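An instance follows:
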Amino acid sequence: MLRVEGLHVYYGAIHALKGISFSVAEGELVTLLGANGAGKTTALKTISGLLRPRAGTVALEEHALEELGPHEIVRLGVVHVPEGRKIFPRFTVLENLKAGAYARRASSIREDFDFVFTLFPRLKERARQMGGTLSGGEQQMLAIGRGLMAKPKLLLLDEPSMGLAPLLVEQIFATIRAINQQGVTILLVEQNAAMALSISERGYVLETGTVILEGKASDLVTSDRVRQAYLGG
């Protein structure tokens, strides 16, 4: 479904991605692992059109994405849930969810509200509450729910566990797995390597803008290099 090949991305003179290549098949849940500054978020921003590569290609099925704007990429089915949630704090929960469906006809989104509220019953309870008054965990639920309202073929999730209590982390990851099992393809960026690999089919490890390891999640979990760097030895 998604093919990234030879991707080079710069921030000014800083070479952030150095020719990385990876793929995500339809229906997969794939994780990008790496320390801060490895290039994980840059990869997602490039896929979703927020950054332009200097070289390389990004393709969703038969569509080349690297020259398209973010709004065009969303209409093709690629939806980015950014690091730090980035909800609209002065919108209600319901208004935030409606914003996620801005590119769709209003008559077609009722079932998606039901799907989001089934995944996150707390959001239904707080439908009229301002987004900025929600807890961190609730805001993360809202950010994912808003992304789902765009009806993604491919969902890009950037650090969904950041800043959450352990119990909420487990809940968020269980929900991500449930979303994937409903047929949504997911590319997950996450520093919690153990949790990410536990729900993924495959993974790639980035280091200073380069893919240094790739393979099945079960193989990466047992890799000495991954265990020492990301799994506490």
User: Anything to note?
Assistant: The chain has a mean pLDDT of 93. The radius of gyration is 17 Å. The chain has two domains: 1-77+153-233, 84-151. The first strand starts at residue 2 and ends at 11.
